[in-house]
Amino acid sequence: MPKMNLSHFEAAILFSLFTSVVLGVVTKRTDQERLQYGAYVFACFVAALFGIGWLMRLGHG
Amino acid sequence: MATEKEVKQPMAPIGVWAPAVALGWLVPGGGHFLLKRTGRGLLLLVSVTSMFLCGLMMRGAMFTPQSGDLLTTLINTGGFLGNVASGILYLLSVWLGYSQADTAGHVHDYGTKFLVTAGLLNVLAMVDAFEIASRRKD
What we know:
The structure holds two protein chains of two kinds. Chain A is mainly α. Chain A has helices at residues 8-27, 31-60. Chain A is 82% helix and 0% strand. The model of chain A has no long low-confidence stretch (mean pLDDT 94). By secondary structure, chain B is mainly α. Chain B has six helices and no strands. Chain A binds chain B through residues 1-6, 8, 11, 14-15, 18-19, 21-23, 25-26, 29, and chain B through 40, 43-44, 46-48, 50-51, 54, 56-59, 106-107, 110-111, 113-114, 117-118, 121, 124-125, 127-128, 137-138.
């Protein structure tokens, strides 16, 4: 099996993508709601990724 | 504020939902395929399998149950259950001899989390299959 060597950012984006798809599929009742919720969760993941990333950078000095 | 009382639905017979939940455990999205929710089943299959395969390619470690202090027991048993929840993906990788020591490094660490999360997402898919099979959800 090939080895994957991803950066923190790439791995976190992949994680967010797969998780958002599943949460979108299992949570809502119509396809429209699923798509919207999946996109919303993905956007939240990315916002948290950047937000916490900057917090750590600022906190680290 | 809720004005209506929640009506508690009776539990559906086990024969109605058990096949979908069992197949959903074995094959991610399998419960949805059985219940003719092909599109959703396909999305679940692709997402959970991709996450698991990414975890393997990042050389993530599989958990084995260990006893010791409370935190060690909790982490290792919980991680093991998370791994097992991936169904055939976990069974195949163990049968084919996948064994990765828990080594330092962010890629390995992400890999370990991907492997556990794939199982946890499959648990969500199983719960969804249960709700569809017992007619609590379309």
